[in-house]
Amino acid sequence: MRDWDDDRLLAALSQALKAREAVPSWFIETGKSAFAWHNIDAELAQLTYDSDQDHHALAALRSETASIRALTFTSAHLSLELEVTGNSLLGQLLPPRAGELEIHTRAGGMSTTEVDEIGCFSVDPIPDSPFRLRCRSADGTDVLTGWVTI
Amino acid sequence: MADNKLPEPAMRDDPHVVALVTRASGGGQDAWNELVDRYGALVYTICTRGRLSNRDIEDVGQDGWLYNTRGGEPGA
User: Which CATH superfamily includes the segment(s) A40-145?
Assistant: First the structure.
């Protein structure tokens, strides 16, 4: 946004006003619910790998199907490697470290699970609605992922 | 009102928007909700102009909203 000049911004705004009715309700609700996190001093981890997207991109090149969904979230100080196996979500923090993992659902629920000394954790069962993970490690690292839907 | 004119002053000069931002900065969820209602279409349009997929729009949108709730704090 910082690089946008006024003409481009105003053109986008003009288009937005015309398209107001076309904005999906989930987009607005996501925006409103983001406010609950405004006082959370956690570093945001970006989704940097999703096997689903990789699979779609390579579908034309291979015939076998991927049986395991894998995702990676990356922040400046920590990565979260996630793997879906059955109804469980297995994960590891990299670099490995112990801590606590919070599982937040978009509906407002929260549960916690322990992260062991080699950075491994398990979420079981996987929430059936969008959720995000917050990892607070013993060394003070505090990382929050974006919303995930499995 | 002509289609090519904005119905409102630029957001940084609109005292109502300034008041909403001030209230949201102080923890006002209702003020934040109104900001999202007012500018959600703009944010969504910027995402769609980038020809992003729905999944990418959701990712960019949620990161953008979170970034803004923190007052544009770098690294958020």
Answer: Immunoglobulins (2.60.40.10)
